[in-house]
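User: For documentation purposes, I need each entry recorded in a consistent format: the amino acid sequence on its own, followed directly by the corresponding structure tokens. There are two entries in this batch. Please keep commentary to a minimum and don't merge the entries.

Assistant: Recorded as requested. Entry 1:
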Amino acid sequence: MSKEQELFIERIDERKQSALAKLKLLVYGVQDAPELFIKNTNNFKEEHYAYDNGNWGVDKNRLTPSEVLLPGGIVSKLHVRPESPYRLVEDGDRLFIRDDQSFLSEFRFLERPNFWDYKTSSGNPTKNVGQMYGLNALNFNLYSGCEFHKVGKGCKFCSVMATVNRKNPVDITKDVQDIVDTCKLAIEHDNVDYILITGGSYLDRDYEFERHMQVIKAIRPVLPWNGVIKGNISMMPPKDMTKLKLLYDYGVQNPSFNMEVWSSTNFAKICPGKEEYVGFDHVVASLLYLQGIYGPGEVWSNFVAGLVPLEDIKNGFRFMAEHGIVPGANLYHAEVGSSIGKSLGRIDEQYVLSVFSYAAELYHKYGYKPYFNTRVLRNSLTNEIYEGVL
């Protein structure tokens, strides 16, 4: 991390304004700024389209920043939306977010991870294998694809099949040794506080689980795991829930099966593949089983805020919290190539604030904490509202 970025993070007295700016960025996105992006190409971590695409009207071959850093160490995902009232501008040697009336916040581009400058022992560029979420979360999508989509039952909000193709610098299926090598390089050349392993969506969820375990067993010896790096996995549960004890045995600290939506009716409508091949009831039962192993406040389930009525997502949050499971949410954004695309429109600000305020209320009631911090959780306002800066 550069000295300039460290000083920017230390401006904690501006965190309230930064949190407000993040709210606006996630709800409205920003206008495209090709000249600014081209000028700063060497200064930012580029979007490399390993999973989704929220940049409307942007050629994927043109380098576009993935995230921005706001004063006080708050990171926000960047989505290009042509109709956004907000734009990114340069004023001297400083960068700002503004609309037609006023400046909203200063920002900096997130620096490109150093490990992307290297190749694995097989000669594969590490950018094809792993990415850095926010400032310090090393992420691997074990499968940058979706078999549910291949049988016509993909989640309605997801754009993975339209986003990831042969032209992208991303391996759709990651080699285990490449992942191990990438972990070594990231630890050597970057600051890493979290590791996130995402399985993608396989029809055979037992195979998905075995893939996770294969990777976890391989990378643990090369990582300063428990107590230094927090290990998280995100997948669908296997058929045999007793296998889940292996996650605990191998030191995965906060496993998650993401519900995406609540209730069972909404789940079947919005996530038809997960309903048919996994099942709403099985995901819930598996979360409860894991909670019995890990204890309250250690198991995670994520939702997508904006897909269902407010009371439905609040009901899901409450169920999870009352059963010892930490509910979280990412904010819905229209993705290029998803089946709902722009049809759902922009999420209402008050809805967003209500969702995350309710989550924070439950956190404080049950003694839970957000899993990731504000330097990582780029598409959520969980931390900002939990901390009281929004």
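Entry 2:
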Amino acid sequence: MKKPITSVEMKDIIAETGFSHGVIYRYYSELDEVLQDLVIRINRSNRIDERLMEILDRYKIGEWKRTVKEVCGLLASYLEETEIDILKLSIYSDVLAMNDPKRVMRIASRLDKDDRSPLLILEMMMRKFLERVVHEEKLHPIRSTDEILQFMIVTFHGIQTGYVLSNCYQTEHITERYKPAPMFDCLADSVIYMMGG
């Protein structure tokens, strides 16, 4: 948390932990192994799949709009429940992915299915749900399922960034401006509109 993840080196890990070179290298041969364990720890402690599945399993024909609202409400709760430092680290990870996508893909390829990002799980589960809704409700979405999901993920990242900024940098024009609940409610309305509702 003291510097962007893109500039962290093994010597920083060694200095921060107070352990010797030998002790650190007994457990980790490179920085990416440390980052992999960090990602696993964060993703395991910030799961949304069970709560998401619960919401999606309650869906009944004719109630899909309410389900979309509940899913977006879950995303708002997820942001508010997750420590700001973890959210900040997530943003730093996005920067790392932009600067060194091959490195991030190497780290991601080492993760088990259960250690994936909550957003990847959301995307996978929502894809099935949206496709089911379109079929069962005989909807005519104005955008494809892929475009709607991309919009949801990009909007999530934007809300997360604004939320982190408003909590980390208490400046007049940002403070209290990014409240997850109304922003995710707006996302829900947008998804409902794009689905043809």
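Summary note for entry 2:
The first helix runs from residue 10 to 17.
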